[in-house]
Amino acid sequence: MKVLVPVKRVVDYNVKVRVRADGTGVETAGVKMSMNPFDEIAVEEAVRLKEKGIATEVVAVSLGIAACAETIRTALAMGADRGILVESDAELQPLAVAKLLAAIAGREQPGLMILGKQAIDDDMNATGQMLAALLGWPQGTFASKLTIEGDGITVTREVDGGLETVALRLPAIITTDLRLNEPRYASLPNIMKARKKPIETLKPADLGVDPAPRLHLVKVVEPAKRKAGVKVASVAELVAKLKTEAKVI
Amino acid sequence: MTALVLLDHDNAAIKQPARSAVAAALKLGEVHVLVAGHGARAAADAAAKLPGVAKVILADAEPYAHGLAEPLAALLVALAPGYSHILAAATAYGKNVMPRAAALLDVQPISDISAVVDADTFVRPIYAGNALATVRSSDTKKLITVRAASFDPVPAEGGSAPVEAAPSVDLPGISRFISSELSRSERPELTAARVVISGGRGMQNGENFKLLEPIADALNAAVGASRAAVDAGFVPNDYQVGQTGKIVAPDLYVAVGISGAIQHLAGMKDSKVIVAINKDEEAPIFQVADYGLVADLFVALPALSAELGRG
């Protein structure tokens, strides 16, 4: 079974982002970029399926500017076999990404696609669900455990009150939650090997998709800052302040 | 303009985040609500009492019993022609279903809105809440999930809307519910609690989370955790407060042994009053805390418990 894993290049999770003074967005120039953390979990899961002999090939797909090839290289260094880059300088919103990925799924015919549940830049949490809809496939979102048997997959999902287990028919879409696995670090020999793995480059037009955004960004602002409060010296003082000053208990 | 709100419920009552989604929808026009489930008549009756709701649609059939996204999205698509906006709370339920329905309608969903500007324009946090984006949708229909912590919920009582049955819809049989393991707790739910007390990596292990319990009991608080505590295996993921967990905005948030990573602050910084207890006085959590106590939590928690017990 072939497994497709979409990977997104995002501002590294350790970077404290700054809103541009002109309100047009967040400063990304000169900022460290990395693979979206939930996508690392997706790559890891796909590579583990290959190591278990369930997946035959792992294909990493990224969509965006030419530099997204670096994100694909990271996935290849973790153990993916080859990459596909859909190159576009235009902003790609989740609906466009889902349409492009659906077109790639049509060409590649994977048995499973594993995506991160959410990208830590736009925090949309939408692409996996939308891709599943466009393909008419079932979805196992926010997954913390997967078991593949025959033509089905059993998925344990992180839901609001605890866990839920569902059975899906394959092919299916999975989106990862953080407890699914702990992604590996790529070893130096594997980083070297990844340089030789192939990456195919396509354009949105090659896939017959109009990626025009549907959401127009009016402005981006910084949220109101909280002011640091006061230090209290003791538990007794804390409780007294909560009762008489803040009046919350 | 009429908006439809898909409600989270437990077959008996409407969950508080869904009542916040109704509050957001009321800013857009007339509001209808959808209760989908199996044996969910009591939930529909509860929905009919929500003030401001003009109509309740009840879809009562076995495939809707467990909130699976595949049948629910098909139902929303069938109901969509009557509505300019379709909303749900940004809970695990809403986040699972709404983008699926949106793609079927060729709409770009607008996730996790924190404010309604006008019928086409909404504010939503991005980058873990470190920036607020105002976006205008060019889609003719809007599919929206609502950040419950940003909208005061409508009251549970006061209205009297009629209940209608939903049309029957062809549903895809590609997914099946097997089981759920829900945390049993007498305490309020994290997203609905007036007080939340959360532990972080400083708690050192899961056993020590018991130190939070007498305090949670005294304050009628929900117990939460930072991602670090979940990653370390101290507590289950449904305790997680943060960018990738639950977003809360209680009257009082008590952070214990939590350093204050961006990811965690994203989930709680809209709380009215924040208390931080940490032995590291340089911890970033103190920059957002109204009251900071620099102390060893293993000394401070029993003392706090005793102090609250004194009444």
Give an account of the 3D structure.
- The complex is a heterodimer of chains A (249) and B (311).
- Chain A has 249 residues and is of the alpha/beta class.
- Chain A has helices at residues 37-51, 68-78, 94-108, 127-135, 188-194, 235-244; strands at 2-6, 9-11, 33-35, 57-64, 82-87, 112-116, 139-149, 152-159, 162-169, 172-176, 199-202, 215-221, 230-232.
- Chain A has a single domain (2-244), classed as 3-Layer(aba) Sandwich (Rossmann fold).
- Chain A is built from six helices and 13 strands.
- With 311 residues, chain B is an alpha/beta fold.
- In chain B, strand 7 (121-126) and strand 8 form a beta hairpin.
- Chain B starts with a strand and ends with a helix.
- Chains A and B meet through helix 3, helix 4, strand 7, strand 8 and strand 9 of A and helix 3, helix 4, strand 5, strand 7 and strand 8 of B.
What's this, in brief?
The complex is a heterodimer of chains A (249) and B (311). Chain A has 249 residues and is an alpha/beta fold.
Mean pLDDT of chain A: 96
Give the helix/strand class of chain A. Answer: alpha/beta
Q: Which blocks of ≥5 consecutive residues of chain B have pLDDT under 50?
A: none
Using the CA coordinates, give the radius of gyration of chain A.
21 Å
Across the major sheet of chain A, the strand order is 9-8-7-10-6-1-4-5-11
Topology, number of strands of chain B: 16
Top keywords for this entry?
heterodimer; A: 249 residues; alpha/beta; Rossmann fold; 9-stranded mixed beta sheet; two-stranded antiparallel sheet; 13 strands; 27% helix; B: 311 residues; 7-stranded parallel beta sheet; 5-stranded parallel beta sheet; 8 helices; 16 strands; 24% helix; 27% strand
Outline the secondary-structure elements.
The complex is a heterodimer of chains A (249) and B (311).
Chain A: E1 2-6, E2 9-11, E3 33-35, H1 37-51, E4 57-64, H2 68-78, E5 82-87, H3 94-108, E6 112-116, H4 127-135, E7 139-149, E8 152-159, E9 162-169, E10 172-176, H5 188-194, E11 199-202, E12 215-221, E13 230-232, H6 235-244
Parallel strand pairs in A: 1-4, 1-6, 4-5, 5-11, 6-10, 7-10
Antiparallel strand pairs in A: 2-3, 7-8, 8-9
Helix pairs in contact in A: 2-5, 3-4
Chain B: E1 2-6, H1 16-25, E2 30-37, H2 41-48, E3 53-60, H3 69-79, E4 85-89, H4 92-104, E5 110-113, E6 115-116, E7 121-126, E8 131-137, E9 142-146, E10 163-165, E11 175-182, E12 195-199, H5 213-219, E13 222-225, H6 227-231, E14 252-256, H7 262-268, E15 273-278, E16 291-294, H8 297-309
Parallel strand pairs in B: 1-2, 1-4, 2-3, 3-10, 4-9, 5-9, 12-13, 12-14, 14-15, 15-16
Antiparallel strand pairs in B: 6-7, 7-8
Helix pairs in contact in B: 3-4, 5-8
